[in-house]
């Protein structure tokens, strides 16, 4: 199971039992209140009779993703790379992350290296969703 935090929002994935390399493939929706606020992910090993074991955490910045969303791009060929983000000491990226135009949407795939653990990575895909009635960006 992993938990995602952004400001006061907290979302959890379902538990994948008896798997040392779990795949969740869950869709989670967060409201972006402050685009400068980093997103924190915590990964846990679910225990039945004791507290869950923390398996590591990772943090990622969504400000560049939001900048691309604000560009209001349209009619680009699917697969067009809009921006590349390199791994640094300041982010948890395990490899280069590209923000791309895919099937009419802004999408970013991230491979995040978990901190506070010997080894571990989490793969995420960000996608911007305009919610009717929201203030938008």
UniProtKB/TrEMBL annotation:
Keywords: Abscisic acid signaling pathway, Calcium, Cell membrane, GTPase activation, Lipid-binding, Membrane, Metal-binding, Nucleus. Transmembrane segments: none annotated. It is found in: Cell membrane; Nucleus. InterPro entries: C2_dom, C2_domain_sf, CAR1-11. The keyword Hydrolase does not apply. The lineage of its organism: Eukaryota, Viridiplantae, Streptophyta, Embryophyta, Tracheophyta. It comes from the Eukaryota. Its main location: membrane. It comes from Salix suchowensis. Residues 1-75 form the C2 domain. PANTHER family: PROTEIN C2-DOMAIN ABA-RELATED 1, PROTEIN C2-DOMAIN ABA-RELATED 4. Belongs to the plant CAR protein family. This is C2 domain-containing protein.
